[in-house]
Amino acid sequence: MPELILNGAVVADTFVRIAEVDDLAQLPVDQDVLAPLSVWQAMPERLIDRAGRRGLLLAPDADPTQAQPFFSRLDVIAVEFPSMVDGRGFSLAYLLRTRLGWRGELRAVGPLLRDQLQMLARVGFDAMSLREGQDLHAALSSLRDFSAPYQGSADEARPLFARASLESSHV
């Protein structure tokens, strides 16, 4: 079974990706499913009626506001990275967390590298699957590569100078 990093631990990835509604007929009703936005928009009841966990797979060019009507029915939103140099998924994650209020699992999927994990976490991803062949256990340490990021982001809105001045005022 494939694995991924979730909340700082390596866990089994129980989700199966589908491309269209007809793919559901081939899966057990309790199978966890990641479906693209087009499937959610076309036949949401086919996904909602399933016993397994439900996920939405967002393409990097998707409009995340179109996913918002399904938030209450979702267990996970996965953002697809078609290549390791395509940064649009970072922006999608930031928008989902900070502007659209998504609080559930936010997963980065695609050929990602260990070096990208901390940046993924900073914009709001709490689950990451990496390029095939990457050692997930070794990659976990990259989540602690930097102790104090300079810029604000989804994980800490205040930049370092604001955090430092606040801490020094309490001394």
Structural class, by secondary structure, is alpha/beta
CATH architecture: Alpha-Beta Barrel
CATH C-level class: Alpha Beta
The helix/strand series, from N terminus to C terminus, equals EEEEHHEEHEHEHH
How many domain units? 1
Output the CATH topology.
Answer: TIM Barrel
Distance between the termini: 51 Å
List segments where confidence is low: pLDDT < 50 over at least 5 consecutive residues: none
The share of residues in extended strands comes to 15-25%
Number of H- or I-type helical stretches: 6
Secondary structure: helix percent:
10-25%
CATH superfamily: Aldolase class I
Q: What's the pLDDT, averaged over the residues?
A: 87
Strand order of the largest sheet: 2-1-8-7-6-5-4-3
Fold and architecture overview:
- The protein is α/β, with parallel strands linked by helices.
- The chain has one domain: TIM Barrel, CATH 3.20.20.70.
- It is 25% helix and 19% strand.
- The chain contains 6 helices and 8 strands; from the N terminus they run ββββααββαβαβαα.
- Strands 2-1-8-7-6-5-4-3 form an 8-stranded mixed β-sheet.
- The chain is globular and about 55 Å long.
- The termini are far apart.
- The model has no long low-confidence stretch (mean pLDDT 87).
